[in-house]
Amino acid sequence: MRIEELLEGKRVCICVGAGGVGKTTVAAAIAMGAAANGKKVAVVTIDPAKRLADALGLQELDNQPRLVDRARFADYGIDLGGELWAMMLDSKATFDEVIERLAPDLKTRDEILANRIYQQLSGAVAGSQEYTAIAKLYELNLEHEFDLLVLDTPPSPNALDFLDAPDRLTQFFEGRALQIFLKPGGFAAKIVGRGTGAVFSVLQRVTGVDLLKDLSLFFLSLGGLIDGFKDRAQHAKELLTDPTTTFLIVSSPEREPIDEAIFFWGRLKAAGMPFGAVIVNRVNVAYSPRSSDQSWVDELKSQLGEKLATKVRRSFVEHQIMAERDQQNINHLRHEMGQPALIEVPALDGDVHDIGGLAEIHHYLSEATSKP
Fold this sequence. Notes:
This protein is of the alpha/beta class. The chain has helices at residues 3-6, 23-36, 50-55, 71-74, 91-102, 106-114, 116-125, 128-143, 160-163, 165-174, 176-182, 187-194, 198-207, 211-223, 226-241, 255-271, 294-304, 306-337, 355-366, and strands at 12-16, 40-45, 66-67, 83-88, 148-152, 245-251, 275-283, 342-346. The chain has one domain (3-288, 316-366): P-loop containing nucleotide triphosphate hydrolases (Rossmann fold, 3-Layer(aba) Sandwich). It has an eight-stranded mixed β-sheet with strand order 3-4-2-5-1-6-7-8, sandwiched between helices. Helix 8 (128-143) crosses helix 15.
């Protein structure tokens, strides 16, 4: 199956998988290919390699999508018929933007954003990159007219973090401890009416920070935004299960990321998420002739000399062993997942750090090398 077939009728493509398998590069290649096919595409990256960002002309990449100059693609013989937009996720900035949208007025907005407690806690409350990645995806889907959104998800030691991020934020706001602070007559109201206690007074004199005031203003201001947060979290969760969304699991052929891919697939299936395919990146491909064929070895010796020919043969044998290992792991994945749609991208000669490298990866995503 080709990547174009997998994305037919889709508006959101979420690339998930273990860290270090090339998710960012694969996501960029998918977005570039869709833009080359005439679509208006935005790719949300987490931490693109600096050389790749430079090649795309995105040195100033920030939390808003920026249009990539199509002239850069022309240098590689790529006719970008559509538009490619790119941005790098900023968790803190994304959460600040949510506050700005949900605040009932400018005064409340400014009070929360300037509050020291909020500034310290906002990263943790946001659920780190997992929640803010979904929040940004929801915002782009709601407020912009993109034909396709491609999300490069944060590397996570636990696959549950990304899928459960909306629920975890809702649970935080519905939690008993927070409700004690927010309910009428609760802690927030009491400390406002009580005035500055002795302990807080000492802290203020020593540090110059009125912690009591910051706490009371933070919880009182936050109370009016909770319904908005919960509503957005619910809509973000619905987006993850929408038929126009697809999850692509990106893996490398080593056993550990293969096992993580299988586990993640199980979580997607259990959660009712729309799974599309597995992309196995950096696959070692076996060469011919076989290492047991003596004729090519003799020819190498005559051309290179015995010492160098022996080193070449050793490298060749090691490569063949790795290629066999890769196929065994991929076969294990196929068996465990019930023959899923699968695309193999071979290991390239070097790191992908420019548009030419992205084009080469997209070639393998689009051509008949894909596996049914």
